[in-house]
């Protein structure tokens, strides 16, 4: 029989900032002329029993040629280096991205605890584990929103099309306000994977995924397979519940299960991506996923299960000196607090009737470019219709008519209270490497050594429907993407 697609979001994994990577790891040299590509060439050591995630990647990627062409159109090469006695391979990575991945590896995945992925290696399973740096689903995590990105993953739709443009917003037509506790179907557009799977006659279980409590179409969120969100439920209990589904009679086992873990995102917002608490949170997630995998293996179903572990965005530190204040624009334009729908990482402004959005934007740009507004150069203002098309954030009437795009790590606050703190945020332009995350896949349809370019999270919906061999709803993903990533159904 076909076993479940078990689908997890590992909180929000963050790549971190390149400045934290030490320069003494190895010898750097240019790879191609004066291009900005670089390579580390250092010693290769025998693999230790406690092998790293990237050691596992090395074995998987042995079929790869030394030189490949990436989606950036540049020629790059895989390379090895040794770190704390572990053989490590990075491949096809632009230097800035490479340094961030190295920082992520050093701070989070090599923290003294055995990571779950090395645990897979001794099992000698014929699997593919791909660590891809996947951009947030365009602006799916904008406005510091968890819900927008997570719902984009399960619908394959950008926020402008699935309707959840932020964690909090007001519908300008009806005046109602959406919050993360709003479960009325009219807010949640598109068709989520749990609806699609049920509609195709298969069983579903979903655990705390945003939108799953919305009763819509053929989905009625049965309590046994769709518990109401409760952040206090321990991660161990969530995994135990999922494991229990595999002990049900065969005709009741869900064909699709998805589970949401809040960490390490919750810590990242409080203390930033570089605090030791993040390492501890990742180690805890590792332990939880390790428990899941070992129990599936004991049940004899792990080889046949498809497991996707994915984060929906990265994280960047927001520290002193990176704030902008609308009050500083007072000589050019007044921005009352009542106009502001959100402050950062996307500034959203909805002026009242009778106030021209175009005039507001014009005056704001003049002030920001005046060199007298602190950090003014780090905020770019747009009318919604002029917002960059590649970010797919203008097609909804729910989106404010004025949008401000902040540079990485900058914030807008209504007024300067002289409070200086360091924390973490996400939702900035997905071109920033700190906003990217990981995708790890295991299962019969993940081809060993398959080269996959960076992709948007909206592609995952079609990937899952293809694995389950069911018909999906229309979405913003590319229909052929699953054919490129996956092997044919057996």
Describe the structure.
There is one protein chain. The chain is of the alpha+beta class and 490 residues long. It has a domain at 323-420: Gyrase A, domain 2 (2-Layer Sandwich), CATH 3.30.1360.180. The protein is built from twelve helices and 21 strands. It has helices spanning 53-60, 95-109, 116-120, 146-155, 159-162, 193-199, 235-245, 265-271, 276-298, 357-368, 460-468, 481-485; strands spanning 5-10, 27-30, 38-41, 67-69, 75-77, 79-83, 86-90, 169-170, 177-178, 204-207, 256-261, 306-310, 316-318, 323-324, 340-342, 346-349, 379-383, 402-406, 411-412, 423-425, 439-442. 47% of the residues are buried. GO terms for molecular function: hydrolase activity. InterPro entries: Alkaline_phosphatase_core_sf (IPR017850), Phosphodiest/P_Trfase (IPR002591). Pfam families: Phosphodiest (PF01663).
Low-confidence stretches: 1-144
Please state the overall shape, judged from the principal axes of the Cα atoms.
globular
Residues in β-strands, percent: 15-25%
- Biggest sheet, strands in spatial order? 10-11-1-12-21
CATH class of one domain: Alpha Beta
CATH fold annotation of one domain? Gyrase A, domain 2
- At CATH's second level, what is the architecture of one domain? 2-Layer Sandwich
What does the largest sheet look like?
5 strands, mixed
> Compute the gyration radius: what is it?
23 Å
Sheet/helix structural class = alpha+beta
Mean pLDDT: 71
Give a count of the beta strands, DSSP E runs of length 2 or more: 21
Number of discrete helical segments: 12
Separation of the first and last Cα atoms: 11 Å
Helical content class: 10-25%
